[in-house]
Amino acid sequence: MTDKYDSIESLLQAVKTDQLSISEAKVELNQYDELGFAKIDLHRRKRQGFPEVIFGEGKTEQQLVKIIHSLILHEEKILITRVNNEKANFICETYPQLVYHATAQIVCTSLEHITKTQRQAAIICAGTSDLPVAEEAAITAEVMGISVKRFYDVGVSGIHRLFAHIDDIRNCNVSVVIAGMEGALASVVAGLVDHPVYAVPTSIGYGANLNGVTTLLSMINSCAPGSSVLNIDNGFGGGYNAAMIVNMLEQHSGME
């Protein structure tokens, strides 16, 4: 349903008072757009606060463009993850209003047109090799309207680099910590802050890192409370969860 009819009751009342025809009401009640190869969830924003996100990997350029068209018709924000350069160029030629963030491999609505929250999410990255995952988290949160502060290359092998920023990190409302190797940075940060920490293991590391499995297990076994672990290389999940925390805080403060 559109914002005009934010409940079944308001929709039925509109039909009853002849403000809306039965055929128009049926369109309003349609919860997804059938494209044949995909069913676009048109009620995601009402249920979860943000529209359906498109996972770009494995989809053709033509499929992505058709999905984008459906979302734009319904005036939704666009967020497409895991998009390579070739697909991104095709999409942005078709929809020049969209922007490609190459490091994050994300195509999305321009961040310039998105109002940001007062509260902030910290995106903390252990090393430069982890930047693609960190940027996926950061851009995801920003598209969802979150103010983000980036703290990059602050891994435990030079922990003084983290301590140089710890006051700014503590002033944020949630942290997303991205690390490969042994993943120790997440435990360190969780032991220094009083807000939720989302730990994202990356597949960066030498042989025994096992493409991130060692990092994942290390983060799961953290002794520091207040830390929740995402899947390997899942920067999107970290950014999304952080956005949910900040938006919840913003909504709560608006009720006071």
Describe this structure in words.
With 256 residues, the chain is of the alpha/beta class. The chain contains eleven helices and eleven strands. The chain has two domains: 32-112, no CATH class; 115-254, 3-Layer(aba) Sandwich (Rossmann fold). GO terms for molecular function: hydrolase activity. It comes from Staphylococcus cohnii subsp. cohnii. One of its GO terms (biological process) is 'de novo' IMP biosynthetic process. InterPro entries: P2CMN_synthase_LarB, PurE_dom.
Domain count, please report it.
Answer: 2
The CATH topology name of the largest domain reads Rossmann fold
Top-tier CATH class of the largest domain: Alpha Beta
Largest sheet: 5 strands, parallel
Mean of residue pLDDT values: 90
Organism: Staphylococcus cohnii subsp. cohnii
Domain PurE: 119-251
GO molecular function, one term: hydrolase activity
GO biological process, one term: 'de novo' IMP biosynthetic process
Please describe the topology of this protein.
Layout: H1 8-16, H2 22-29, E1 32-34, E2 39-41, H3 44-48, E3 54-55, H4 61-73, E4 79-81, H5 85-94, E5 98-101, E6 106-109, E7 120-125, H6 131-143, E8 147-151, H7 160-163, H8 166-170, E9 174-179, H9 184-190, E10 197-201, H10 213-220, E11 227-229, H11 235-255
Parallel strand pairs: 3-4, 7-8, 7-9, 9-10, 10-11
Antiparallel strand pairs: 1-2, 4-6, 5-6
Which terms summarize this structure?
11 helices, alpha/beta, 17% strand, single chain
Summary?
Helix content is 40%, strand content 17%. It has helices at residues 8-16, 22-29, 44-48, 61-73, 85-94, 131-143, 160-163, 166-170, 184-190, 213-220, 235-255, and strands at residues 32-34, 39-41, 54-55, 79-81, 98-101, 106-109, 120-125, 147-151, 174-179, 197-201, 227-229. β1 (32-34) and β2 (39-41) form a beta hairpin.
